[in-house]
Protein 1
Amino acid sequence: MPVPRVFIIRHGETEWSLDGRHTGTSDIPLTANGEKRILATGKALVGDDRLIVPANIAHIYVSPRKRAQRTLELLDLGCHDRLPWSSSEPEHPPEDITSNARVQITQDIREWDYGDYEGLTSKTIRAQRTKRGEGSWDIWRDGCPGGESPQQVTERLDRLIRDIRERFHEGDLDEKEKGDVLLVAHGHILRAFAMRWIGRELTEGVNLLLEAGGVGTLSYEHKSIEEPAILLGGAFVVDIVNRG
């Protein structure tokens, strides 16, 4: 039986993500191309014989931002319940309902609050700091003036990780047949989440990439909740053929 996993899914492409602009509190919609790519991701990775098996999902956490929520809609996981932001019931016929996971909007997985740097590119930020005679800038070390520090981000992510482990992964991992968890959120916060999942400090630097619409996987080594790990790659699941 597979060890429970946490899938981290970054929202699809937006005009600001294309430009490299820091998008925290701003609610920028997906581009048409961003929506198409998320649909393709769902077809490739979601299904009974795919990486993400809807029936095995215990819970889904999603950012309050509409771009993340739209991304979850387009993945088409076949959720039984109405999505929290939707005014209508799921349109899936009964045979297409494949997941009983509850969808929860949480502020703990919202994007980093960029404060004064909202809407700016890293190049613009560094140019402004140079003009003001300020030193170099690294978000993982310095955070954002008027926004969040690495410590503030760490506190809310650690709270979310505790919630996941206590509610869905505590106990014998061999018995967690339907213990997968999905997070649909944003680039900086999901990379920070991956670091905190394995107990690394954000101030050490985060040399991880997660493209718009990208999917990452976290789990545990040796089927032990005491050994959280980043799953770099998994084998395809195939039927075992007995040879006589």
Protein 2
Amino acid sequence: MSMTVDDSSRSLCSDLNDLGINIDASGVDKYPAKQHAQAVAHRLDVSEGLIYLPGQRTVFLEDSDQPRLFRQRRYFYYLSGVDEPNCYLTYDIRKDTLILYIPPTDPQQVIWFGKGSTIKEAEGRYDVDEVRGNDTLQADLEHWIESNKNTTVYNTTVYILHVDQKPTNTDPCHLECSQLLVAMNSARVTKDPHEIRLIRRANSISAYAHRSVLQAIRQFKNEAQIEATFIDACISKGTKHQAYDIIAASGENNSTLHYVKNNEPLKGRQLVCLDAGCEWECYASDVTRTFPISGYWPSREAKDIYDIVQLMQISCIKKLKPGVRFLSLHILAHKIAIEGLLRLGILEGGTPEDIYQSGTSQAFFPHGLGHHLGLEYFRRNSPCTADSSELEEGMVITVEPGIYFSRYGLDHIYLHNPNFLRFVNISVLKRYLPIGGIRIEDDILITADGYENLTTAPKGEEMLRIIRNGADASKLDPQAS
């Protein structure tokens, strides 16, 4: 039986090495950088050439000696698994050779900021063929181009992501900056088992953090306490970084899709919309829950809208499998929303198809049903467009339907549109404005014969029960321990 070393075992190996006890870490489950490089080369559909990627450099705040928070370039990480600054990589497609370049150790910098990997440490830690100092990079690039001249045209092509990431002093005729991004986006949308484990772990911690908020929400006075509690719970489980800015909205703030002020009082508000997900080793989770602060639905209107959004999500998730067009599920979500709003009397005067074709439902559900997820909150290659590909095994997508009542949007956009007014009962609509909006979001893995929901954060009745009981969140998700 093949076995890999888990997170705790890797930590133990590291601790023992620090004590001078050498542990063979060859069995450590490395991030599959070489496999990713091969997949990208396959999508480039070339047999020769060199891929060149710079990692994120250390960047200092303007007029300051303080560095900005380091965040590795995600395309670089995909081909290296390296979360350290000032590194580079090259991949020789013909030779199938992945080389990592790392900065030399500066003793003065170590005193202040600590030490990065040495060449020997990096060779054991990362899935690359060779590790060199980045002071040899320029000479290596020049040698590669010179040694491949007078062969085929592809031999001296250096593939880069963007023009501003080109290597210095390199002849522009050797550079190609339009194909690599497309190839990498295509490769990144399907996840290997290692990547899925990282996304699963991020979801487990995010679920613990969501539960922690639910447990304490009745004690909170301000949106800021929601954000602080979520971050605290994530850090306590070993991850410092969020995949995106936390949205901790309450009341009518829920209608602002990317509300991030998170600083208003909760008093008098019906609902909270918490859209928050942490990262684990650079891989993202993306989870949204909307809930009543008291643990009880404050109005029939709020409960009715929650039930419609919940039906939108359940219905769409059930249809996920390889070969499905995600756009068709986005349309299905709109039609379920329309049927629900017709039952409530918010919409009137037409059939569901008439209302959908008019675009009226976009006022209440203005965003896509979901997006790809992986090394970030990933909106490239959107699955909701007409030219998007069918779902494939290994994709991870979010399913995040919502219904919103944006007072600003209605006043400044929709209530001046005769086509909108034709299908909307304004007097009924006004009763729903205090809700702000309701969104529910889970992260879904497409499997060979269907799907797996990677998100374990509570919703529905379980969510309400936790709020009412103030349950001990640490006992509710043992996977996050």
Protein 3
Amino acid sequence: MRLSSLSPLLFLLLPTAASTYWANTTTASANNNNNNNNNNNNNNNNNNTLNNSTAIPGRTCGTGPPSEALVREHELLQTEQRLATAADRLPPRDYTSLIQVDTYFHIVSTEDQAGVINPTMVANQYGVLSTSFAPAGIILNLRSTTFTVNNSWATDASDSDMKSSLRRGTYASLNIYFQTNLSSTSYGASSQLLGYCTLPTNVTYTPCSTCTPVEYPTADYDQDGCNVLAGSMPGGSVDGYNEGKTAVHEVGHWFGLLHVFQDNTCAGGDPGDYVDDTPQQSVSTTGCTVGKDSCPEEPGVDSVHNFMDYSTDVW
């Protein structure tokens, strides 16, 4: 559910171990608990089931374009940072103020792949996520992991029903759905969808000029979260994308990050991903082609070592 306004975002920049940069954002907290119950009994057959035991030619992310509200927030944050940089007044990074995010994993399998995703893979995936976000002061606290066998949900044929049943926590809680057969016919037979995620929005509205903000019902944001092909988890079956970085990429979207090739252009003045130290990039990366430069007239080379590109996990 996309709501009308956007919470203030916390803008963070940090170098990763691969000497790349993130621009991390997080939303303000909401207060309502989602008490939907887990349903493990709906095992409907679905003819769109895809086998995820094949090589994928390139990362395919199905996250949609940013809303106008999110774009405005990025523009505001970028402007504030540029003014602070110009005045040599960038605030020191506060490593003591941690962002705590309750996190819930949901393993959703078809009948024929029940049990393929094991607890070791779950633990390793959590480790990759924790290690990737910790340098930004973002702590993902894994509260629970559910295992569900449901052909319709595992193939993404009933996404709304799945999330309404499985989602936990508040809007400030991260829910990741690892589906064994996540698929989308719109991407063609030669490729396969690795994941998609909702971008930040707000869960409150002000009914009148003098009114206190009111939170939307939980049902209005129970579709929030990330869908990830389970075979991309560490030790999974997806060649080149089985070290857990697809989940990092999608959770980056959940925090408000855009692709480093946003807008797919080299045009001067295009904001791209709104991060000034990310070089302009016009196309996504296949494999890990270090030195690739899709915008040779602009400074820098493509960010093939950035989580928000489509590079393979081995870099």
